[in-house]
Amino acid sequence: MGVINTDSTGKQRNQTMRTVAEILRRLSQKQVVDDEVRNMTAMLVYCLREVEAGIDQSATAWEKRDYWVKSEELRQRYMWVGDMADQLRAMIYSEQWTLLPPIMLKLLPRVADIKITKMTRDVTLWDGVYDKLMQEKPAK
Predict the structure, then answer these.
(1) Whole-angstrom Cα distance, residue 86 to residue 84?
(2) For residues 43 and 19, is the Cβ–Cβ distance under 8 A?
(3) Which of 3, 24, 36, 105 lies 20 to 30 Å from 123 when distance is taken between CA atoms?
(4) How far apart are the C-alpha atoms of 46 and 20, rounded to whole Å?
(5) Does residue 138 form part of some domain?
(6) Structure-derived torsion over alpha carbons of residues 8, 9, 10, 16, reported in degrees to the nearest 10
(7) What span, in angstroms and rounded, lies between the C-alpha atoms of 17 and 20?
(8) Alpha-carbon dihedral sign for residues 106, 123, 15, 63
(9) Among candidates 85, 89, 115, 83, which has minimal Cα distance to 14?
(10) Is residue 140 part of a domain?
(11) How far apart, in whole angstroms, are the C-alpha atoms of residue 121 and residue 112?
(12) pTM here?
């Protein structure tokens, strides 16, 4: 009998996408770009990167079992995450915060199926994440 992994990449992906949904909800209530907005936006970059990494892991696992169609469907469904993470990162690095609302409009349909009746993510989750992301910025 095999070991059942209760913390699968699928479960992690669902939790991460819920974090994305909650951050988008919070961002939509903000009027000005402050430290919290910068931190939440940077957190979106990390969340989307995490989802992208998990997709490849899950798809590879499906391929090993010869579930090629399922693998390809998964890759297709989440094909957008890497590009979206890159767009957000570029926007943050260039300080073009006016691009945030249009990017959020592209992201919202991706999490529309996630029902949020209560915020479950603690705001400390994204504390300092903007500075962390800025440290990755290549020197000119």
Answers:
(1) 5
(2) yes
(3) 105
(4) 10
(5) no
(6) 120
(7) 5
(8) positive
(9) 115
(10) no
(11) 17
(12) 0.90
The structural domain count of the chain equals: 1
In tens, the pLDDT along 39-92 reads 999 999 999 999 999 998 899 988 999 989 999 999 999 999 999 999 999 999
Instruction: Report how many helices (DSSP H) and strands (DSSP E) the chain contains, helices first.
Output: 6, 0
What's the rounded mean pLDDT across residues 111-124?
89
- Domain residue limits at 53: 9-131
| Residue 92 maps to a domain | yes
Question: Identity (one letter) of the amino acid at 136?
Answer: E
> What pLDDT is stored for residue 5 in this prediction?
53
Amino acid at 125: L
Cα–Cα distance, 87 to 92 (Å, whole number): 9
Structure tokens at 21: 């949904």
Angle at 119 between CA 34 and CA 36, to 5 degrees: 10
The secondary structure of 65-118 as a DSSP string is: TT-HHHHHHHHHHTTTHHHHHHHHHHHHHTT-GGGHHHHHHHHGGGGTT---SS
Instruction: Find out whether 119 and 24 touch, Cβ atoms under 8 Å.
Output: no
| 3 state DSSP class of 55 | helix
Residue 63 lies in a domain: yes
